[in-house]
């Protein structure tokens, strides 16, 4: 395996490593946890890194699931209000 060279990102952070054949480094488990909405270290005490990658790859992103749930609740509430309004209008005529 060839040694990688450091490149600076848009903020000047030389943390990204590109190997000599054009590949980009693998995300660390803690970075995957953050992307999925889990707290740092969520999987480190439980499973190996390879199992953590599999678990996080199969997980539903927590903030996205929460947003979808809230939207669904809002749509359901709107539908109930519309039904009540329609019923009241029919009753008034």
Task: List its salient traits.
single chain; 93 residues; mainly alpha; 3 helices; elongated; disordered N terminus
Structural summary, described in words:
The chain is mainly α and 93 residues long. The protein has a domain at 61-93. It is built from 3 helices and 2 strands. The protein has helices spanning 29-36, 49-58, 62-92, and strands at residues 5-7, 16-18. Strands 1-2 form a two-stranded antiparallel sheet. A hairpin with an 8-residue loop joins strand 1 (5-7) and strand 2. Helix 1 runs parallel beside helix 2. The chain is elongated, with a radius of gyration of 24 Å. The termini are far apart. Mean pLDDT is 78; it is low at 1-10.
Spatial arrangement of strands, main beta sheet: 1-2
Q: What's the average pLDDT?
A: 78
Q: Major β-sheet, in short?
A: 2 strands, antiparallel
What does the radius of gyration come to? 24 Å
Number of extended strands: 2
Layout: helices, strands, pairs:
Elements: E1 5-7, E2 16-18, H1 29-36, H2 49-58, H3 62-92
Antiparallel strand pairs: 1-2
TL;DR?
This protein has 93 residues and is mainly alpha-helical.
């Amino acid at each position: 395996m060839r040694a990688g060279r450091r490149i600076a990102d848009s903020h000047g952070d030389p943390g990204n490593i590109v190997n000599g054949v054009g590949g980009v480094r693998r995300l660390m488990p803690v970075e995957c946890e953050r992307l999925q909405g889990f707290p740092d270290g969520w999987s480190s005490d439980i499973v190996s890194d390879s199992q953590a990658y599999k678990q996080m790859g199969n997980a539903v992103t927590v903030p996205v699931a929460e947003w979808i749930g809230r939207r669904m609740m809002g749509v359901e509430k709107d539908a109930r209000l519309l039904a009540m309004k329609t019923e009241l209008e029919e009753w008034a005529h």
